[in-house]
Amino acid sequence: MEQTLLYEICGYVASVGLILGYLPQAVRTIRTRKTDDIALPTFLMMAVGAFCFMLQGILHRPDIIWSLFITNLVTCVCSSIVFGIKIYNDFFREK
């Protein structure tokens, strides 16, 4: 097996694993709007980290690393939404 093919397969397997591991929690939080047990800095840093990895994937030369870009796009969007819900719940929602 060629090294480049193995590299691509590992990237896509990692992408699917990360999305399937992270997405259910994000979807549950978005649906229920319950963020009491979520640490605000955690989701902020996850969004920042995912955004940076997304940039790394898209700016990679000579070819874009699509597995890195797509995985972190999904993670960045979900983390940002959860972060926004957390901010709203902690600071703007009447208790």
Description:
With about 100 residues, the protein is an all-alpha fold. The protein has a single domain (about 5-90), classed as Monooxygenase (Up-down Bundle), CATH 1.20.1280. About 80% of the residues lie in helices and about 0% in strands. It is built from 3 helices and no strands. It has helices spanning about 5-30, 40-60, 65-90. Helix 1 runs parallel beside helix 3 (about 65-90) and helix 2 (about 40-60) runs antiparallel to helix 3. The longest helix has 30 residues, at about 5-30. It is elongated, with a radius of gyration of 16 Å. The termini are far apart. The relative contact order is 0.16. The mean pLDDT is about 90.
Oligomer: single chain
Mean pLDDT: 88
CA-based gyration radius: 16 Å
Q: Which CATH class?
A: Mainly Alpha
Q: How far apart are the termini?
A: 59 Å
Element-level helix/strand string: HHH
Structural class: mainly alpha
Unreliable spans? none
Q: What percentage of the residues does DSSP assign to strands (E)?
A: under 5%
What is the count of DSSP helices, taking H or I runs of 4+ residues?
A: 3
Q: Tell me the domain tally.
A: 1
Number of strands: 0
CATH topology category name: Monooxygenase
Largest sheet, strands/sense/barrel:
none
What characteristic shape results from the CA principal axes? Answer: elongated
What CATH architecture would you give? Up-down Bundle
Helix content range of the residues, please? Answer: over 70%
Question: Outline of this structure?
Answer:
The protein is mainly α and 95 residues long.
